[in-house]
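Our consortium's second objective concerns turning raw sequence data into structural hypotheses that experimental partners can test. To show how far this objective has progressed, the report includes one record in full. It was chosen at random from the queue rather than selected for favorable results. The single chain below, 407 residues long, was entered without modification.
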Amino acid sequence: MNERPPTMTSTNERPWRVGIVGMGAAAQAFLPAFAKHPGFDWVAFAEPDEQLRLKHAQPSTDTSGPVGCASLSEMLALEGGLDVVYVATPTDLHLQHVKSALAAGCHVLVEKPMASRLDEALDMVRAAELSGKLLMVGHSHSYDRPILEMRRIIESGVLGRVQMVHTWCFTDWMYRPRRAEELDHRLGGGVTYRQGAHQFDIIRFLCGGLVSSVRAKTFDWDPKRRGVGAHTVFLDFETGPAATAVYNGYGGLSSMDLGFNISEWGFAQALGERSWRTKPPEGQILGAQAELAAKKARAASAIPGAAPHQPFFGLTLVSCEGGDLRQTPNGLSMDGPQGRKIIDLPLDQTPRDLVLQELSDALCGVAKPIHTGAWGAANLEVCEAAIASSHEKAEITLKHQVGLGSS
């Protein structure tokens, strides 16, 4: 992915006008990145929840802030129009909202997972192709600087060809406050869709994209908190590499124990600060209404902005012919023919800053994007195949994979 500073071409001398649909945790995490980027102007949002709408809408005395709308159709009808729509609504609404935005002549950035089912994702891709507009999928953790640097090292050939990638994550995901549909894999919920989407994106990004088959076992072992809460997935690639993705969201061991006590978003956390070790699991003890209220309250701080360390979405270990790569708090450790080399990486841009950089570069013709709709659909195909493989106890062959640079 291109690392140059964001630019605007002479064909787009004003910032791209952005509308956001859905103002939950994902959207709120993007607000600082939109505010920083000179190529985007956040002018409107659509949010049916009146309390959230009032929180983010412009004051009556301010004509420069975003306009709050009760629906996507209302936002798309605003005077002046929009150039880009960021879709951050619940997964089961993505198809409807993406197609509406494309039909209105907007480019679209949609949250992962891009849909509840692969056929919906492919429908979005076709709609984008017919409209002539860009469809991108993000944020995902392949935008983390250590993962980007791993890919750069692989492409440089200094360690030879990549052979294995393993990414393992242990959290309390199942016991955080959730909407019911977030736990239902039929609606794009559960850890395989919502967290596996990160893992499979990372693995495909590092191994070139073309997964040939998947063999997996998923787990639903807490009768008080139903849903796919853990998985072990084996991915075989057409080009030779093999990979594993392990995720356990049941709140025992923490990935921070494997990763220098650094959290998913780059903060040092001592043992006592890990909530599931010191508190009852919120999502398991709250009623439905109280759980939804807790989720809304958590949204504003669930995904912090700038951090003192690199993000740590579990442990990712890459084995190439000539050595191995893994994250460190500030970058990477590379063990190769010349011994161990520690590579520190900059903290000047967050992963969401890098999402918008890729989006801006694509819109301005500076660089071809990787995280396109076709790339996101290929990630979703892996999610769907993992669920099917576990159910059928069989290896699943994939049909909709795309390689790096070909999506």
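The partners drew two points from this record. The longest strand covers residues 162-170. The two ends are 13 Å apart (CA to CA). Both points have been shared with the crystallography group to help prioritize constructs.
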